[in-house]
Amino acid sequence: MEQGRSIKVWIRGMCTRGLVYLLIALALAAASGCEAEKSNDDHAANSAVEPASGNGRKADNPPSGDTERAPSDQAAATAAPETATSNGDPSAAAAPVYTDEEYAALIASQFNKVHQLDKAGEGEYFYELAVLGENEVVYGMDNGDGFELVQHDFRTGKTRSIISLKGELISLTFSPERQMLDISYSLNDAWKFKAWSFSAGELKGNLRTVLAENEKWSLVRSDKGGGIWGVARDGSGKFKLTDNALDHSPWWIPGTNQFVFLAHTNRKINDGSGYEYALILYDMDTRKWKELSFDKGPWKILGWMEPGKKLLVDHAFNEGVDLNYTEPYIVDLELIEEYPLFSAGMDAYDLAFNASSRSFAVTISGYLAFYDQKGDIHSLEPWLVYSSEQLGSPFTYSPDGKRGAYLVKAAPTSDGASGALGRLVITDAYGREPMVLHDYNLPVISFEWSPDGKAIACFIQNSHGSFIVMKELESLGGTSGRGN
């Protein structure tokens, strides 16, 4: 994949399927004095219970509905998770009360690997989660004077600080070949860069963030100034290609030293919906560029539908709206033509591009819609199990393009507590064969795939603590379901 993939994921919720589950792990049963009961009711088998929820990314105070621990004479009655009501709707279950130790045991019962963040860090902001492999993660935390990057190894259980920096973390971004983790941050209104080397296991004094690479050149952001820079991969030269700091999205034309990118024109769109961008073709051999004769306006390049010939782009303007609406177009670089893939007024959002199959997915009301390499509809998959559940995150492809994941959120209760809870669902690349990652509704803040797509990591946080967890997908087995 040519583009460095942003690690940042904004989570909003998703759909799930039924699993028979233990109402609580033996450790919780022992702590609470309650014997876990397995429900034989078909609806209960498709339901999930709701541990008390946190809200947002900071674990400060219990949100509405997250009550304090009951007195000791009530502990046995409140420690065990409560099952859903007879209609099988998981969002209808009342939130039980846990001690911190019970909640940690519940998390441990659901995932292969668990790292609980230091209690001393409770209340600090979690920034980013980068998955280096099936056993290693890097995450960022606010340290009060800036941010700290921390590495955790699930094999050894060891956690170590990589670096503490003043300023504000902007993003953690894998280099195109996934050999470096590029760190972008701001300090005194200036962009700064560092990089973590996977192979060397150490921090490099990197002065750039890689945007795209071919065999000869790297296209980067540099601390030397705004715009896009070209850097020879053999170290023989570095020079500035564009001047505007808002120029972005360079994509190499395979087999050449030419690339296209989006240039900020400094002109506002006539209807006031943001600034214009133009599609530019740049030739690194001649150091010349030309503007391609496409309409100017909102642009986002998503990837090659036909390498070197046809791009998938998005012309939607989204500033100030809650949903990430999409207007996908095919841009033909040979014919210098573009055409829309959706009819006018189609209410689609959260487009995800699969670089492996040159296909994509969007969300529409009640469904995930999947499109093939030509932009034709391939299939529709419902994401709702229960009418009260809400899809809360975009469909996200694994790095190898073979699977997808999304979050389904329990509907908010009258006090709003349940809206922060959800379950992560794993599917194939077309949204089929859904498998629930965990049995209980949990406050999942973000999730990330492992590089090989065989595991997935989540950040979970509420007033009981902060956890980074990982689950190997083979452990889910082959069962699936959406409820009947």
UniProtKB/TrEMBL annotation:
Instruction: Indicate what this protein is called per its UniProt record.
Output: WD40-like Beta Propeller Repeat
This protein's species is Paenibacillus plantiphilus
Regions of biased composition (Low complexity) lie at 75-85
Signal peptide feature range: 1-36
Does the entry feature the keyword Cytoplasm, yes or no?
no
Coiled-coil boundaries: none
Q: What is this organism's lineage?
A: Bacteria, Bacillati, Bacillota, Bacilli, Bacillales
Query: Does the record's keyword annotation contain Lipid biosynthesis?
Result: no
Q: Which domain of life is it from?
A: Bacteria
